[in-house]
Amino acid sequence: MRIISGRYKSRKINTPAETKDCSYKAKSSLRPTSDRARESLFNIISNIIDFDETGCLDLFAGTGALGFESISRGAGKCDFVDISRKSLELIDKTSKDLGCTDKVKFYKEDALSFLRRTGKFYDVVFADPPYAFDKYEELVSAVIANDFSIFALEAGSRYAFKYDVNKYDLIERKIGFTNFKIFIKKENE
Question: Is the separation of the CB atoms in 48 and 69 below 8 Å?
Fold first, then answer.
């Protein structure tokens, strides 16, 4: 798996051996966002926001692909949250390989617990929960409570979310097996 664009274009993102396939049938519960899906997501987001010096949050970070793509495109910092020590070790290794350790922070914590505790604003929030995740409404509510400019969620197509249509626009895209729901805070809010 490689970074698509920006300063670290074509540089490797470390992944565990069983996810090299990256198909939806991967043996691991870790399922990195495919290059094609990441490229489409970042094309959408880049038309809305300039990544220069933004603060990003990568929830359920896994390999950190979404966060590192943001840093490569100019994000000033990215916080990575994952419950798995092994995932955070991979992210740490990638940050060292890329030479961007000054732009990353790691949190070994459940994503919902982190959101309830932090109260921090992020320009861009990414969330790619595992397939078995069943607390989407809770997740969306927790992110909204913390405030953001853009929230990109990978979720099954069967999930419909309640959100304040006066405060947020919603873009939905399906790319291969990946479904994105992108919440965009309206400028007047």
Answer: no
Q: For 21, phi and psi rounded to 5 degrees?
A: -65, -40
Does 22 have pLDDT greater than 60? Answer: no
Domain assignment of residue 7, yes or no: no
Task: List, for residues 66-111, the tens digit of each pLDDT value.
Answer: 999 999 999 999 999 999 999 999 999 999 999 999 999 999 999 9
The string of DSSP letters for 4-53 reads -SSTTTT-B----GGGTT-STT-SSS--PPPHHHHHHHHHHHHTT---TT
Q: What is the pTM of this model?
A: 0.89
Does a structural domain hold residue 71?
Answer: yes
Q: Give the pLDDT of residue 185.
A: 92
- Exposed (0-12), middle (13-18) or buried (19+): which is 78, by Cβ within 10 Å? buried
> What number of other Cβ atoms are within 10 A of residue 159's Cβ?
13
Q: What is the total count of domains within the chain?
A: 1
b/e per residue 2-32 (b: at least 16 CB within 10 A): ebbebebeeeebbbbeebeebeeebeeebbb
**Alpha carbons 93 and 90: distance in angstroms, whole number:** 5
Which tokens in the block code for residue 60? 């359920």
